[in-house]
Structures are given as structure tokens and as C-alpha cells.
Task: inverse folding
């Protein structure tokens, strides 16, 4: 999710965050400025992107490693 999303998109993201928290899963809701979800996905192509590091950290915490 990113800052330039609709209110409904933000609401759904908050709901998903709450669900993962209830399940005891690690979750961070990162909301980059001046982007939409397409921009965020495009940034994930860069292995040096901070979002990639965050995803890998979550994978390690969920599955060990």
C-alpha cells in the first residue's frame, strides 16, 4: 500500500494488518509517500530496495532462517 491510495484501500490494508496481528504473524504496514501500489511493486525489482529487506525479514521471522 502507499499513501496515494483510496480510503477504501487504506481501510482494507488496516483490516489485513489486524488479521495478521491476531494470528500472531509479524506485520508492518509501510505507507510510502507519493506512491501508489503499482509504484511500490515496481520498486520491488530492485534488490537494494528497503521494502525488499523488510519482506525478507518477515519471511525469516515466519519461517525461520
Result:
Amino acid at each position: 500500500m502507499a499513501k496515494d491510495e483510496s480510503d477504501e484501500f487504506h481501510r482494507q490494508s488496516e483490516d489485513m494488518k489486524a488479521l495478521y496481528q491476531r494470528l500472531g504473524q509479524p506485520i508492518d504496514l509501510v505507507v510510502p509517500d507519493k506512491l501508489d501500489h503499482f509504484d511500490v511493486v515496481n520498486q520491488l525489482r530492485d534488490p537494494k530496495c528497503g521494502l525488499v529487506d523488510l519482506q525478507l525479514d518477515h519471511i525469516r521471522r515466519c519461517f525461520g532462517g
Remarks:
- The chain has one domain: 7-63.
